[in-house]
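Is this the right way to post structure tokens for a design question? Let me know if I should format differently. Anyway, here goes:
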């Protein structure tokens, strides 16, 4: 399975300022582009800090004579293009920021990732989610017959029904489905074929072989 990365969702053209950019110009750019923060870069494009609305309000100087260098937060919290979206979301949550400058290996700004960019994951079409679960999760990863499991997706909610051959696969299937981009939650109604055969034969049902309906939890660990 291929999960979308920061590079897939970020805005590639970031609005930036230089350390010498004046207070009023920073305020004008934030309003013009309807953003809450901007990377501060030097003449070579390397990130030196981030200046935000909060910085302007918190550190507003008398007469508004300060520059981005005076106001910015440094060092800045950043992301890398190859990061998973989940990792970036966790960094945002941990540091309580709404936007992450995305930098390359040399520290140059190559884009910006915002919370609104992350929301795109949940706008993925139901058919695409269903197709990935059937082809990538069930067939390629777990080598299960797609005909044994019914996958229905409605507004990101995945409903699983059918049977798996071994009880140990039940939590694995659910966990992998929860990790698919765009999945909001998983309603698991899978049963174990081994338990059904044992019950049909009149034999005892071993530990863990009965019908298992796992509680669904938040998908992907997203922030």
């Amino acid at each position: 399975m291929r999960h979308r990365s920061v590079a897939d969702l970020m805005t590639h053209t970031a609005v930036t300022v230089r350390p010498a950019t004046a207070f009023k110009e920073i305020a004008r750019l934030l309003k013009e582009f309807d953003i809450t923060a901007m990377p501060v870069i030097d003449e070579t494009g390397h990130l030196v800090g981030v200046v935000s609305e909060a910085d302007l309000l918190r550190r507003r100087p008398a007469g508004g004579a300060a520059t981005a260098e005076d106001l910015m937060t440094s060092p800045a919290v950043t992301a890398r293009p190859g990061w998973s979206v989940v990792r970036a979301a966790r960094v945002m949550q941990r540091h309580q920021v709404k936007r992450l400058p995305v930098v390359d290996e040399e520290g140059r700004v190559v884009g910006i990732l915002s919370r609104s960019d992350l929301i795109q994951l949940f706008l993925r079409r139901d058919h695409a989610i269903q197709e990935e679960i059937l082809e990538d999760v069930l067939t390629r990863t777990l080598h299960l017959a797609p005909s044994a499991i019914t996958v229905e997706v409605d507004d990101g909610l995945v409903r699983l029904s059918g049977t798996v051959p071994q009880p140990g696969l039940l939590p694995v299937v659910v966990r992998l489905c929860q990790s698919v981009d765009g999945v909001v939650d998983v309603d698991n109604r899978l049963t174990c074929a081994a338990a059904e055969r044992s019950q049909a034969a009149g034999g005892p049902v071993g530990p863990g072989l009965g019908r298992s309906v796992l509680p669904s939890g938040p998908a992907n660990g997203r922030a």
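Format looks fine. Someone answered above. Worth noting: The mean pLDDT is 85. DSSP finds nine helices and seven strands in the chain.
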